[in-house]
Amino acid sequence: DIGKTAAPEHFVENQHGRNPHDRLKPTQSAKIIVSHVTYGVKLAKEMGLPPRIIDFIPQHHGTRTLHYFLRKAQMEARADEEISENDFRYPGPKPQFKESAIMMIADSCEAAARSLSEPTPENIRFIVTKIVDAIISDDQLDECDLTLRELTQIRESMIKSLDSIYHARIDYPGYIPPNSIRTLISAAEEDAEDRGIHYKNPADIPISKGGEVEDEAIDRSHQPEKAEAKTVK
After folding, report:
1. 177-to-11, 168, 169, 229 alpha-carbon distances in Å
2. Which range of residues forms the domain containing residue 8?
3. How many domains would you assign to the chain?
4. 151 in a domain, yes or no?
5. In degrees rounded to 5, what are phi and psi of residue 89?
6. Which tens digits make up the pLDDT trace of 134-191?
7. Measured between alpha carbons, how far is 135 from 144 in angstroms, rounded to an integer?
8. For 16-57, what is each residue's pLDDT tens digit?
């Protein structure tokens, strides 16, 4: 995602309460988001990264559609205006090898887990299963040679890994494991981790038909209620 450096404020992980997409037309928003792939490939080539690494940049997004912006454009369109789905689609290609397919799944699952205000094992399993099923249904894995058995292993490994990462956040908000340099997260770091929107109900996370989290499309004035943080005494 190095291509996001061209317009970092248009991506949810870099936003501070305001969503610039609220002031843009859906086609403009889609163009900015999709272009981070082509710009990322350009940067990677300029930096001399290996071709196999560069392949990850477009393939981990595949040919998925930005459904939220597409739907918004369709709702705002005039009766005689034709909206092309291609204007809201990543250029691809779909994952061509197993590693880029795994990256596609991991990227979406991590983004969804980060959006959970209560990352319980049950909620994590729900979002990972939903994302994997959506990616398969959208035919994004048709061009790589992952087997159903391997997909099951990937899903279970993803659930286990995310549960290990986020379980401490439930009982000990702001706490870093003892093997870290510091014990408490600073106010600045807490603010950084709190950016974007957190959802109590995992079903509310805006996961597209292609299994991608599309937080950039969300109007911040309708932010879902966050869970109250527990206080450690």
Report:
1. 29, 9, 11, 18
2. 2-222
3. 1
4. yes
5. -120, 140
6. 999 999 999 999 999 999 999 999 999 999 998 755 454 554 444 444 334 343 444 4
7. 13
8. 667 776 778 889 889 988 988 999 999 999 999 999 999 999
Per the structure block, which two tokens stand in for 155? 């899903």
Cα distances (angstroms) measured from residue 61 to each of 138, 157, 192: 12, 21, 25
Residue 56 covered by a domain: yes
Q: Does 230 map to a domain?
A: no
* AA identity, residue 72: K
Is residue 25 assigned to a domain? yes
Tokens of 218: 């969300």
